[in-house]
What does this fold into?
Amino acid sequence: MSTTAGAIDTATPPAPAPPRAGLIEIRQVHKSFGDLKVLAGIDLTIQPGEVTAILGPSGSGKSTLLRTINHLEPVNQGLISLDGEVIGYRREGNLLHELPEKEVLRQRTAIGMVFQNFALFAHKTALANITEAPRRALGIPRREAEAHARELLDLVGLADKADAYPRQLSGGQQQRVAIARALALRPKVLLFDEPTSALDPELVEEVLAVIRSLARAGTTLVIVTHEISFARDVADTVVFMDRGRIVEQGPPSQIIDHPAHERTRTFLQRVRSGGPDAESAAPARSTDKDPS
Ligand SMILES: Nc1ncnc2c1ncn2[C@@H]1O[C@H](COP(=O)(O)OP(=O)(O)OP(=O)(O)O)[C@@H](O)[C@H]1O
Ligand SMILES: [Mg+2]
It folds into this structure.
């Protein structure tokens, strides 16, 4: 906008606050592996600053959905965008062209991911695990990256573990380093795929506490979890998936406490009673793959 000196300040209302970043729009996403239809038309909007918990039986497509959000899995049909920018593709008129890997990597820096199995570099210290991506992907100088990494270690309660290697850390501590690592790129959105399901029960709470504090700070979070009471506690929206579709979505008071669908009720009952849906390795699963 061009302005004329003296004419602008009084005539123009103050600029609105910039919208909070991190709006994810998922539209009619379909994904198959060979003949197996894994996502069958997913429509979901994730609002900036909100926490979305995804629940559903094993094999329902939860991990696949998360992986399509940061284009670890290309979709067969449909679109996913972050703040209006299509992920993985460049729009040209009505055509979509897959972006070169370099561009996808740039987009991915805005979308952090935390995996069930931590996926830390075994031969790097906690500090080096956290500084690796900012230094490599964003070219941030070592001192600056390390200063930020130490702040993040402090945030996840591990200020004294900067020099520890993953093998010297408990599972819960490793997962907290993985969370700090995901935060190091200052992502707009953080995706968690069952972040506590590989942990001994007594270590679950320390990781959930870190996720809760991120939620309170207004980070946009998408969490696949089997921790129903945690989801009720932390989520603004709960999404229940089954067989590649969203069966129902809404606030926890609705989906967890008063589900409209029989399938949701059965699932919640099974999880609460420790039945087959409570485990990640339920019979519906045909392959056992590493989620990373
Ligand atoms: N790379 C792949 N190749 C072939 N099939 C796959 C692949 N990834 C996932 N699948 C299949 O897609 C279906 C959905 O898998 P997905 O991992 O998304 O389920 P999930 O809901 O995350 O399950 P869980 O709760 O067990 O983690 C499963 O039947 C799985 O075997
Ligand atoms: Mg999964």
